[in-house]
């Protein structure tokens, strides 16, 4: 075992919260080999991040750790504070999920790089450290002119490159990357992963990457550790894992990854006899930005949703996809153009008409915890639209709420529970029940599963589709995840920088994209197949 | 940065005119006639009253009096009081006392308040943290005159460590006792604010990343945490300095310090309008200038404000 860079032996981590002890990591054993990229994969609560933080002695003070962590033969758990300080950064470096938050907002990125270099190489002069910092910035492909920029002046992807530059500054023996690309768009994710893998040849050490994304695993890993509920489920070489998973959980995890083509082709009904459920004509949305500049979030967009169709609106952050959803709901200012819901124009109608029309629209937001009133029971939340718009009261209301709970496959008795008693997936089911309570003609789902684990996401998407099959509402499904859109949508519209650049039925857009941006987006989304990812990377690096 | 400064200065000028006019109007709306009380028990003859009213343009409409006042103010002239003494000179004699008192109190607040807050924040939920909270609140809930008189009794009379009242011993000896009493009332707020800010910063992602970089505890806390947590505290401290400069009426009274607070109190009591307005104007200027300095300091400390 001594040839391993880092090894965990029977690691247990307990957190004490308010007098009760909660075990986050339970007898975890695995090791990182020299020079390899090891992926630790698992859903939220699997203990993967806690395991990584333990290796650096970075756990909060209410954690108690048992077992053994050895790094290059030294026992990390028995190290003093000053020994840990010499270990961190110098021998084990770490990068985190939220790159903008991981940099001190009040110092320039150059100062933070120089600080790292001078802490671990005090012999270097200020000028030499600066030279080295500039060299590192070039290495992660950040222009030298950005040296004096503050973190908030850079994009998330750029900040993560800076973090990588800081992490590799002292040539660590091990680089731990905790969900390094989760907060980033797919095209940016790909660039950051490329930079990260390029470091492999530049530093002599190993990389341990923690992720929930099987696509990222397939893309970068040599070996994989699968964790669940604080324990290791399976450890395998990457091809082995994807081809022949030995554990049912690994299999389930792989199955839950959304893959396209599960939905049958849309029935070829050209719903010309009825008005479209939603029609957006030449929509422009502008916000007043800083210093009086206007920011055009949506730029002359035309989009039509027919009744009974699910249309996926895809794009990266800042593409304007959510703004379109908001403008339909009256939450974004319509600068010009028209939004019609079931033929009713929203900009010209009286406020009473608009209210009535909006009652025909259901909404599901990304964060189910934030969109449910924490002080209302889920029964109250689900029943509120019925009480407000239909005047349903008493037993009838209770009956309707129970039916709605049935339809989202939650127990009827849960009507009296509060949101904090539910898991994320269950809360999102409540949001869906509330959204369909008025039997809407149009459902707007804004990243409804982005905050959920893959296995939960799979069941929520399943549910959404079966309800849509039954109720036949039109649905505007806003998402950044092409695989999810591929799985549930009939039609797909792709947005970039406020413009709608391509739309059509699912097969034509996703299998035969015409626009260069769509092609790039599709190529950047990692698929859970190591061979395919290796092939793509080869093509990309070749030219 | 330049744009930011200019914008703040324009705001300052607008606020200055608005507030000085409000004070000016308020003082002249006070009940009672300042001129007739000049004579004490003997009523002045109507001719004399009329002459004084004329001299001070008291028969003009309010707006024209205000404009005339502003005109003088721009040349640095605060006018004369009803006894013909220059308001500016009277103020000039008082300011040094008040400024010494306020600055001393402020420094005590910064050092002890921020220090206690930092310790409490770094040792959150320990007995030290709770002790700081209880102590500061307990002290702040004692009325100021009780605190002041007790301090005089203990440190002045019993222990004979410090002078009881007056400024005859000069700075710092004469000012230590009143400044400490004055400072105690801001301590709880400064300590609490610092504590909260330190806790927020310590639990932020970037501090965890700084530990992971392998920085020393001294560097993480002394450079990164301190600078990030000082931003909200600084705002409070600057406003507090403004309040200390203008609000030490009771303390100046108890410790018999001939400062601006005492002068203000006396002037209001005898309807000495020009002096009241003069002091108020000076205080407004102090407030406005400190708030601009705070904004500029904040934007130096926090680049996100600077680039907004």
Automatic annotation (TrEMBL), chain A:
InterPro entries per the UniProt record, alphabetical: AAA+_ATPase, ABC_Ni/Peptide_Import, ABC_transporter-like_ATP-bd, ABC_transporter-like_CS, Oligopep_ABC_C, P-loop_NTPase
The family this protein is said to belong to: Belongs to the ABC transporter superfamily.
Domain ABC transporter: 6-254, 278-522
Principal subcellular localization: membrane
Compartment annotation: Cell membrane
Keywords: ATP-binding, Cell membrane, Membrane, Nucleotide-binding, Transport
Ribosomal protein as UniProt keyword: no
Membrane topology, from the record: Peripheral membrane protein
Top-rank taxon, per record: Bacteria
Protein's UniProt name: Peptide/nickel transport system ATP-binding protein
RNA-binding is among the record's keywords: no
Gene Ontology biological process terms from the UniProt entry: peptide transport
Molecular function GO labels: ATP binding; ATP hydrolysis activity
UniProtKB/TrEMBL annotation, chain B:
Subcellular location: Cell membrane
Transmembrane domains' residue ranges: 12-30, 99-120, 132-155, 175-194, 233-255, 275-297
Record GO biological process: transmembrane transport
UniProt membrane topology term: Multi-pass membrane protein
GO cellular component terms given for this protein: plasma membrane
Stored SUPFAM superfamilies: MetI-like
First-listed, main subcellular location of the protein, grouped into a coarse class: membrane
Residue span, ABC transmembrane type-1 domain: 95-298
Any Pfam family the entry gives: BPD_transp_1_N
UniProt KW keywords: Cell membrane, Membrane, Transmembrane, Transmembrane helix, Transport
CDD domains assigned to the protein according to its UniProt record, in alphabetical order: TM_PBP2 (cd06261)
Keyword check for Membrane: yes
PANTHER family, A to Z: DIPEPTIDE TRANSPORT SYSTEM PERMEASE PROTEIN DPPB-RELATED, DIPEPTIDE-TRANSPORT INTEGRAL MEMBRANE PROTEIN ABC TRANSPORTER DPPB-RELATED
Protein family membership: Belongs to the binding-protein-dependent transport system permease family.
Name by which UniProt lists this protein: Oligopeptide transport system permease protein
């Amino acid at each position: 075992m001594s040839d391993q860079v880092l090894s965990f032996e029977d690691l247990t981590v307990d957190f004490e919260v308010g007098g009760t002890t909660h075990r986050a990591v339970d007898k975890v054993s695995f090791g990182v080999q020299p020079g390899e990229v090891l992926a630790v994969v698992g859903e939220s609560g699997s203990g993967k991040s806690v395991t990584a933080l333990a290796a650096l002695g970075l756990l909060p003070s209410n954690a108690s750790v048992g077992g053994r962590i050895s790094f290059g033969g030294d026992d990390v758990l028995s190290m003093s504070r000053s020994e840990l300080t010499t270990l961190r950064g110098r021998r084990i470096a770490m990068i985190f999920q939220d790159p903008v938050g991981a940099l001190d907002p009040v110092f320039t990125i150059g100062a933070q790089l120089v600080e790292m270099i001078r802490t671990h190489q005090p012999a270097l002069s200020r000028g030499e450290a600066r030279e080295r910092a500039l060299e590192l910035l070039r290495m992660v492909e950040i222009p030298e002119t950005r040296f004096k920029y503050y973190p908030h002046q850079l994009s998330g992807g750029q900040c993560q490159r800076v973090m990588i530059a800081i992490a590799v500054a002292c040539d660590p023996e091990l680089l731990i990357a905790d969900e390094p690309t989760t907060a980033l768009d797919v095209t940016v994710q790909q660039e950051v992963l490329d930079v990260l893998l390029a470091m492999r040849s530049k530093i002599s050490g190993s990389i341990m990457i923690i992720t929930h994304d099987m696509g990222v695993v397939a893309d970068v890993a040599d070996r994989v550790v699968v964790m669940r509920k604080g324990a290791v489920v399976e450890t395998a070489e990457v091809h082995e894992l994807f081809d022949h998973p030995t554990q049912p959980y690994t299999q389930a995890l792989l199955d839950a990854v959304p893959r396209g083509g599960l939905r049958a082709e849309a029935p070829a009904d050209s719903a010309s006899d009825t008005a479209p459920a939603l029609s957006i004509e030449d929509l422009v949305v502008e916000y007043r930005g800083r210093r009086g500049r206007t920011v055009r979030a949506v730029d002359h967009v035309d989009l039509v949703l027919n009744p009974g169709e699910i249309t996926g609106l895809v794009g990266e952050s800042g593409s304007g996809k959510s703004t379109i959803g908001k403008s339909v709901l009256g939450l974004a200012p319509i600068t010009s153009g028209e939004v019609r819901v079931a033929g009713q124009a929203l900009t010209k109608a009286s406020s009473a008409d608009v209210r009535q029309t909006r009652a025909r629209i259901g909404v599901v937001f990304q964060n189910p915890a934030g969109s449910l009133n924490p002080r209302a029971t889920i029964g109250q939340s689900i029943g509120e639209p019925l009480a407000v718009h239909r005047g349903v009261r008493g037993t009838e209301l209770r009956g309707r709420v129970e039916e709605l709970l049935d339809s989202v496959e939650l127990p009827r008795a849960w009507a009296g529970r509060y949101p904090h008693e539910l898991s994320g997936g269950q809360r999102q089911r409540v949001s869906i029940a509330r959204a369909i309570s008025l039997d809407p003609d149009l459902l707007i789902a804004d990243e409804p599963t982005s905050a959920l684990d893959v296995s939960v996401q799979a069941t929520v998407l399943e549910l959404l589709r079966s309800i849509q099959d039954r109720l036949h509402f039109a649905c505007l499904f806003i998402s950044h995840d092409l695989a999810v859109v591929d799985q549930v949508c009939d039609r797909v519209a792709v947005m970039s920088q406020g413009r709608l650049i391509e739309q059509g039925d699912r097969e034509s857009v996703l299998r035969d994209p015409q626009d260069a941006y769509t092609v790039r987006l599709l190529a950047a989304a990692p698929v859970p197949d190591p061979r395919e990812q290796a092939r793509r990377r080869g093509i990309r690096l070749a030219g | 940065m330049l744009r930011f400064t200019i914008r703040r200065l324009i705001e300052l000028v607008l606020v200055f005119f608005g507030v000085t006019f409000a004070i000016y109007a308020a003082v002249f709306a006070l009940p009672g006639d300042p001129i007739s009380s000049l004579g004490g028990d003997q009523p002045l003859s109507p001719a004399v009253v009329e002459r004084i009213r004329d001299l001070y343009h008291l028969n003009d409409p309010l707006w024209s009096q205000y404009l005339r006042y502003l005109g003088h103010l721009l040349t640095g002239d605060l006018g004369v009081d009803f006894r013909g003494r220059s308001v500016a000179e009277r103020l000039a004699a008082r300011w040094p006392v008040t400024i010494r008192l306020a600055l001393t109190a402020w420094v005590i607040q910064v050092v002890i308040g921020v220090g206690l807050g930092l310790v409490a924040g770094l040792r959150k939920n320990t007995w030290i943290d709770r002790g700081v909270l209880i102590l500061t609140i307990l002290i702040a809930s004692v009325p100021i005159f009780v605190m002041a008189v007790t301090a005089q009794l203990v440190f002045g009379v019993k222990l004979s460590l410090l002078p009881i009242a007056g400024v005859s011993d000069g700075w710092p000896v004469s000012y230590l006792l009143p400044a400490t009493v004055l400072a105690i009332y801001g301590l709880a707020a400064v300590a609490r604010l610092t504590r909260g800010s330190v806790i927020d910063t310590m639990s932020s992602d970037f501090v965890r990343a700084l530990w992971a970089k392998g920085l020393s505890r001294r560097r993480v806390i002394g450079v990164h945490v301190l600078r990030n947590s000082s931003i909200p505290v600084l705002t409070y401290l600057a406003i507090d300095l403004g309040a200390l400069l203008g609000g030490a009426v009771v303390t100046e009274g108890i410790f018999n310090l001939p400062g601006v607070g005492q002068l203000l109190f006396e002037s209001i009591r005898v309807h000495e309008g020009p002096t009241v307005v003069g002091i108020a104007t000076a205080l407004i200027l102090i407030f406005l200038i400190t708030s601009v300095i705070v904004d500029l300091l904040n934007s130096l400390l926090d680049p996100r404000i600077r680039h907004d």
